[in-house]
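Aim 2, interim progress: modelling of the nicotinamide-adenine-dinucleotide-bound target.
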Amino acid sequence: MVQNKKTSKISGFYKLPVEKRIEIVNNFSNLDKNEFQNSNLDIQTADRMIENVIGTLKLPLGIAVNFLINDKEYILPMATEESSVVAAASNAAKIARIKGGFKTEASDPLMIGQIQLLDVSDVAGKAKKILDHKKDLLKLANNQDKILVKLGGGAKDLEVRILDSPIGKMIVTHIIVDVRDAMGANAVNTMCEALAPELEKISGGRVRLRILSNLADKRIVKAKAVFDKEKMGGDKIVDAFLESYNLAVIDPYRAATHNKGIMNGIDSLIIATGNDFRAIESGAHAYAARNGQYTSLTKYWKDKNGDLVGEIEIPLAIGIVGGAGNIHPKAKICKKILGIKSAKELSEIIASLGLAQNFAAVFALSTVGIQKGHMSLHAKNIAVMAGAKDEMIDKVANKLVKEGNVKLDRAKEILKELK
Ligand code: NAD
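Predicted structure of the complex, ligand included:
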């Protein structure tokens, strides 16, 4: 059942001028008239975010439309430099909504912190001793973050691993922390540092590393959608899709590109919301290799109607409080555009976008090929590089695409001819 009357199915959004698009976004997301335009990152704020600042770098910010996720309508802000990504996501979401859109599930927001202990004699005995102190250790960890505990989060569990390495055996203690609406790195790192001296006392060993793991395999999000076979072009196209997909299952060379397509969407939304895309990237790829061979983060199969079912399963360590997303004015507005209430809701949108993006890429590869979609915007960039301005940009780009020869040399020639 659709909860709200507004719809993200906005046809012809791409044909509108920028001002009109902003007006639609303002209305959809209840933003004040100039809120979006006034949300740029100023130099003073940037200077507090990182070191040695000399300026800021802008990226194109687009809106993906048509997303229906858990029966709720969303428009998605995407910051990316790559052409076709936003259009592809919107198209995939349009197909997915025919059969009800995306359905998701997410685990609790559990992050892992690691504390490495060296020079421990009797590692098995000391590992057991650490576990015997679990209650006290969790209490000590939770003393570091009263806010998190008050919100129902905090350190929940402790695990101990014994690892053999070229420099000898070591004990690695994992602290499992429910980080609620945060990404959690600072929160977890603080807890790890607080536990380190206590673990040294218990084990008689020496602590080296005390840091969060980016393999957030206890913070997993799944999104699923059914893609209508008729809209895809019939049984043969669904079969072609599955043939393409299966190479990503068995071959890391293909899986890397397949998963890159997923991250085209995911990173764009991660960046737009001020989240840490390196954390998401490393977690996603480590998870894709969790069974010993790097493979696809998505799965596809045919249901009994012959429609294509797609599913993504991915760790998503993202937050809506803390980090840069709480400082960057545009990231704050992007979260408002999404209308999210929790990190869980954001993670479910991100997973759905990853699936949409992957579907779009494999669909294009299985039919017309990837270049067709890429070429029209790419041709415009080439036209600009050749020196075209204003209405000349479209004229040169159209001719390049028509000739199937999107090259700088040819763009320069066409520009000369047209002038
Ligand atoms: P943070 O410390 O800025 O914010 C989290 C804190 O906010 C919590 O500890 C809690 O005290 C408070 N809080 C208030 N309301 C909350 C709510 N509803 N839910 C949860 N917490 C709430 O940020 P963080 O999320 O701990 O850390 C994220 C930052 O750490 C990112 O900028 C990331 O880039 C950076 N970082 C990442 C790594 C890594 O990935 N390996 C390492 C170090 C730092």
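The chain is about 50% helix and 20% strand. The pocket of nicotinamide-adenine-dinucleotide is lined by residues 145, 147-148, 151, 179-187, 189, 212, 214, 276, 279, 319, 321-324 (CB under 6 Å).
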